[in-house]
Amino acid sequence: MSTEAIRSTLYLEPGLHQALRLKAATAHRSMSEIVNDAVRASLREDEEDLAAFSGRAKEKTMSYEQFLAKLKADGAL
Fold it and tell me: How many CB atoms lie within 10 A of CB 34?
C-alpha cells in the first residue's frame, strides 16, 4: 500500500470542523490523521458487517409478524 497522500477537499459542518480542530490540537495530531483513522474504522466496521451478512445468508428469513409471535411464545412480550 502506498503511503503517498492525496489531497482532497472535504466540506464539514462548522461544529464538526471546530471539534476536529480542537481534538487535533489536544491530541497533538493532524486533522488529516484523525480523519484517516475515522475512515479506516468505518470501513473496517462495514467489512465486519458484510462478513456477518454473508455468514447468515443461508438462514431462513422470518417476517415481522412471525418474529413477534416467536417473542410472545418465548415470553419476551
Answer: 15
The pLDDT value given to residue 7: 94
27 and 34 in contact (C-beta within 8 Å)? yes
With beta carbons less than 8 A apart as the criterion, state whether 21 and 35 touch.
Answer: no
Cell matching residue 8: 482532497
- pLDDT per position as a tens digit, 23-39: 999 999 999 999 999 99
Helices (H) and strands (E) in the chain, counts: 3, 0
Q: Give the pTM.
A: 0.66
Cα atoms in the Cβ-side hemisphere of radius 13 Å centred on 12: 14
